[in-house]
Design a protein that fits this description.
Elements: H1 2-25, E1 28-33, E2 35-57, E3 61-65, E4 69-80, E5 86-131, E6 135-138, E7 143-148
Parallel strand pairs: 1-7
Antiparallel strand pairs: 2-5, 3-5, 4-5, 5-6, 5-7
């Protein structure tokens, strides 16, 4: 009995790991030029050098790490995080973030941003994106976009 429970536990762990790896492996990677605009729901994680302008619709959260400057106009809750980050929750308005090697993560049902500069973005959920040379949809499989400066 103990052996079958142990085998079942190992099998269950392998199934969960394989599903996780499948999700990671199925993310598509594309290369966009100049800027990235995206709108949708889910998560968007940017690793950028440049500027990110986020339009807040009062729903969700925005996490910012490593930014040199953060300007926010509008209403919502802003809090400092351990490690030097900032989080905005339920923000309605515009958040403009500039810096080198910063990380910006947006989570919610109304994500909207435009990023200029260089870096990468991972979009997961449902929505659409545009760059200077590309346009398309993002979905639950995930989409990685490399943004190259002009």
């Amino acid at each position: 009995m103990k052996r079958s429970l142990k085998l079942f536990s190992i099998f269950s762990l392998l199934v969960v790991l394989s599903l996780t790896l499948t999700g990671l492996a199925s993310a598509e990677t594309i290369r966009g030029k100049g800027w990235l605009y995206a709108k949708g729901s889910g998560t968007a994680t940017l690793r950028m050098s440049g500027e990110v302008e986020i339009t807040g619709h009062g729903i969700g959260a925005v996490y910012i790490y490593g930014a040199e400057e953060i300007n926010a106009t509008g209403q919502g809750h802003r809090a400092n995080l351990n490690g030097g980050g900032v989080v905005f929750r339920g923000y309605s308005g515009t958040i403009t973030v500039t810096g080198e090697k910063m990380v910006v993560k947006m989570v919610g049902t109304k994500i909207e941003f435009k990023a200029t500069g260089g870096g990468s973005a991972h979009l997961r959920g449902r929505g659409y994106y545009e760059t200077e040379n590309l346009r398309g949809d993002w979905n639950n499989r995930g989409l990685d976009i490399e943004v190259v400066k002009n």
